[in-house]
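In the design runs reported in the main text, the only information available to the sequence generator was the tokenized backbone. The following block is the verbatim input for one such run; it is reproduced so that readers can re-run the procedure and compare outputs position by position.
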């Protein structure tokens, strides 16, 4: 009632050029609400911004308004993720609360504002502990306030449930002299992905964990249920050690050393490019399928003569070095190459034919000489 009466009292009040140290630029009230400003989740050992939807109390149904002050919706979260949740405290005019940690820690304990700040807290809580596991910083106070961006921050909250499942949490908080209505948190957990392995905490709580640096997994883990209603993991869901032919591995990623090739990113069969190791350069950002400019196919030993892979750039085999490709710059050069190549083939064939004919003529002459001498010898024998 008091908040409603305050709103009515100051509804038509307009205060200008007024400055407050903490909040209440127009008039002083207690903080009225909180607002989720940003959420980050861990990905490949770094925190990245996570998409979400936050509904204020006015955007909720009448039934939900009676029990919640807001609703936070998160989609496709990895079970076992670490979250960083940032939120604002606001007054009735939607001004952010602003204060310094020095004031809270070093101020006079009898100060009424300081006492109010010390009462602030935010706590993430389970609705059903059998369905979700919370670890990390689930309770924050004014000690976790960031005076640079005016936000209260849950720095690392780990939330673990079950892949492909929906679950709910509550954010309970106090930002004035009474307990506020909680914020409902609705989370949909995605399935475990390729490059992640699983850890079973209970039949209802399983985490998806990215294979750490130095290991990899090229298949998605499969979670099955046995007759005793317990969960178990398929054998092919264990992280594999990074091979010697790879520079580094993590998750589903294998970065090959120079000189090695594989058919695609889902293959663990790695082959040394024996004929021309320089063609195989997976670490080069400009390479395609692990091959340098112009090269394609197994072990990067073919040339992109049609310009399919290298975006309409056509390449042909070099005369200078085996298993090396050179770009066909103009039609003139291509024509010269084709004619030259055809002439070389014709010349090689001609030499072969001439060589075979020469050998045949020599053999015929030799046989004729033998037969002539043999006939003469027979005639001489008959005369005597």
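Verbatim output:
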């Amino acid at each position: 009632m008091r908040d409603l009466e305050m709103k009515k009292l100051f509804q038509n009040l307009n205060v200008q050029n007024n400055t407050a140290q903490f909040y209440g630029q127009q008039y002083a009230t207690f903080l009225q609400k909180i607002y989720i400003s940003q959420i980050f989740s861990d990905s490949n050992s770094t925190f990245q911004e996570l998409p979400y939807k936050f509904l204020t109390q006015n955007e909720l149904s009448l039934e939900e308004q009676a029990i919640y002050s807001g609703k936070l919706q998160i989609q496709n979260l990895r079970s076992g993720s670490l979250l960083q949740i940032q939120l604002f405290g606001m007054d009735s005019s939607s001004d952010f609360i602003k204060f310094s940690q020095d004031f809270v820690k070093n101020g006079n304990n009898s100060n009424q504002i300081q006492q109010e700040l010390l009462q602030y807290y935010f706590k993430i809580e389970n609705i059903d502990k059998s369905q979700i596991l919370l670890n990390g910083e689930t309770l924050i106070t004014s000690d976790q306030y960031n005076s640079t961006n005016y936000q209260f921050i849950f720095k690392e909250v780990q939330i673990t449930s079950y892949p492909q499942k929906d679950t709910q949490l509550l954010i309970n908080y106090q930002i004035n002299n009474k307990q506020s209505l909680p914020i409902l948190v609705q989370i949909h957990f995605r399935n475990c992905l390729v490059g992640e392995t699983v850890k079973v905490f209970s039949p209802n709580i399983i985490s998806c964990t990215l294979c750490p640096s130095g290991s990899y997994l090229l298949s998605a883990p499969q979670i099955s249920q046995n007759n005793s209603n317990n969960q178990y993991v398929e054998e092919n869901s264990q992280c594999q050690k990074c091979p010697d032919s790879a520079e580094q591995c993590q998750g589903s990623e294998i970065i090959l050393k120079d000189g090695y090739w594989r058919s695609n990113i889902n293959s663990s069969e790695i082959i040394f490019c024996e004929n021309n190791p320089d063609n195989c350069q997976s670490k080069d950002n400009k390479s395609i399928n692990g091959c340098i400019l112009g090269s394609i196919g197994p072990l990067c030993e073919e040339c992109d003569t049609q310009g399919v892979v290298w975006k309409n750039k056509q390449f042909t085999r070099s005369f200078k070095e085996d298993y090396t490709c050179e770009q066909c710059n103009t039609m003139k050069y291509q024509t010269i190459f084709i004619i030259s190549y055809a002439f070389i083939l014709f010349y090689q064939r001609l030499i072969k034919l001439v060589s075979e004919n020469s050998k045949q003529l020599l053999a015929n002459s030799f046989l004729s000489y033998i037969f002539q001498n043999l006939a003469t010898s027979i005639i001489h024998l008959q005369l005597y």
